[in-house]
């Protein structure tokens, strides 16, 4: 599934990124690469950006970037207001 | 961002040279400020530093020059920040790289560390923000990390001075060693130059690619990332979950899409209220204090100079040019510096760009633009200064143009409401015109900014602003008041006075037929519009005495509302963006004003 289809509070493993090398590189620098676990923290309305927890960092991805990020759900956690 | 070559030339002459390298927002500037007592801009969001900065520290007669580079996630990024850092590192003119690592985000930060190690650079790892890391419940085994990396590692905190003495001691030792000893201590290999992979060179289809797998950098990247992950796991122990802290709760609230965004907007509104109140409170006393001085100056110029055009101009312009900066610009600069420092230091600022991303896209700017735009409704002078929070000059130009031409400040609204009441002009038409112009201008301007199609951003953790940091920023931002703002305002005030007093604008008075056909207003009103465009506070003086119909007043007021910025805004724009930008904005202002007049004349019924 795609990262944009994730629900708030879900954790997923990144599988691949289906777009140009340059963008893949930028995601890599943010710690997002195949095998990384990401958690969807928030989804902004009106096709706004998505907020992910990646390690100890909070990474925001525009909808058009997240739409190319192939992920696999690993765990469904209850949405928590105070994070992991 | 082009000072890298100056720095390289200069480096040849100095004793011990240390280059700070690290991810964005790990606290490089804070570390340098703490160690050397210098005052570089340090903020809580990625990308604060935009130039390589230098600071010097002297220990036991040995000079240590610190070079603060721009934050990079990787040496191999195809972006300007990384290019500059690479250029600096490749020349190998330095003695040691200090790799600042955010201890709370070790795994990702170590990727850069491994990139540096891989190239054989002499390296010290400064494990910054260890205080925050402990709060998060993470313990890092510093000795083990040093063993794995085979480089010295110092646990550090720029917030509570942890590790400062240890680091100084390290530098002392380094200073004592003769050059040869230093060379030996760190392996230095003459590696080939870093070659960047072309963006298009990977199809992702490894079987049919001509590049061999070994030399394909994404594979190497992943290997480094794997190393970083293993090292991070080997040295970190996760203890009990993070202490429950108020700031964490606030952060989760602010980062939520609906309530968070509303809170951010309310906060921007609060900033606007505080700014407006502060200016109106301080304006009275300051102008009362300066009034005798201003009158004295006026009379003195009249007394010592022979009567004539020049004397009239100077007698009016000099007191004006000296009083306006103190009554309006000075309080505005102070307050807006404070507001900006707080927004930057808390980490709230980048949250605006996330929450307002969709809004900003309309104008081709970052969501952070809501801050200067909303401040503009109070006073546009500080709003122009506040555009510094925007990521690049193209965006700043867009926002300053919007501020100058369409955003009405409190004073403008006051003048327009007052005059429209006298002539029964239609406020609805004026407001609608402003909205239409704002949309059209926004659409037009958004084409100026190269659209950043990828929105990838790391949100910094929220934190309580540090008083010292806020104070030093206010001082830095206020520094230009006496040296730049004051003289500039004086000069421009004289120029505008000369234009008005020369009665040059009144040649339009004989063109009644022309102005009536084009703009639908009498020539007298057109001249009044022109004068008001230059000096808004003269509006009541020149407009109220005219005999205008409601239609004429509506057109005239719309033309005034959508025209040029006031004098202080012009001055600040020159200071921030230069004369050529101001010229462009003024030109656009004139064109907008004329188009508004022409269009309304065509649309409005008689």
E-strand count of chain B: 9
Number of helices of chain B: 27
Radius of gyration of chain A: 12 Å
Secondary structural class of chain B? alpha/beta
Assign the structural class of chain A, choosing from mainly alpha, mainly beta, alpha/beta, alpha+beta, or little secondary structure: alpha+beta
Low-pLDDT stretches of chain B:
180-201
Radius of gyration of chain B: 29 Å
Overall pLDDT metric of chain B: 82
Spatially, the strands of the biggest sheet of chain A line up as: 4-3-2-1-5
Number of strands of chain A: 5
The main sheet of chain B comes to:
6 strands, mixed
| Beta strand % of chain A | 35-45%
Residue share in helix of chain B: 55-70%
The largest β sheet of chain A comes out as: 5 strands, antiparallel
How is the topology of this model organized?
The complex is a heterodimer of chains A (84) and B (606).
Chain A: E1 10-17, H1 21-29, E2 37-43, E3 50-54, E4 57-61, H2 63-66, E5 69-76
Antiparallel strand pairs in A: 1-2, 1-5, 2-3, 3-4
Chain B: H1 4-11, E1 16-22, H2 28-36, E2 53-59, E3 62-68, H3 80-90, E4 96-102, H4 106-118, E5 123-128, H5 130-135, E6 138-140, H6 142-149, E7 153-155, H7 164-176, H8 179-185, H9 217-235, E8 236-238, H10 246-254, H11 257-304, H12 309-346, H13 349-355, H14 357-363, H15 370-376, H16 380-386, H17 393-405, H18 410-423, H19 427-446, E9 456-459, H20 467-478, H21 480-501, H22 512-518, H23 523-534, H24 539-543, H25 550-561, H26 567-577, H27 579-603
Parallel strand pairs in B: 1-3, 1-4, 4-5, 5-7
Antiparallel strand pairs in B: 2-3, 6-8
Helix pairs in contact in B: 1-3, 4-9, 6-9, 11-12, 11-15, 12-16, 12-20, 12-21, 15-16, 16-26, 17-26, 17-27, 18-25, 19-25, 21-26, 23-25, 25-27, 26-27
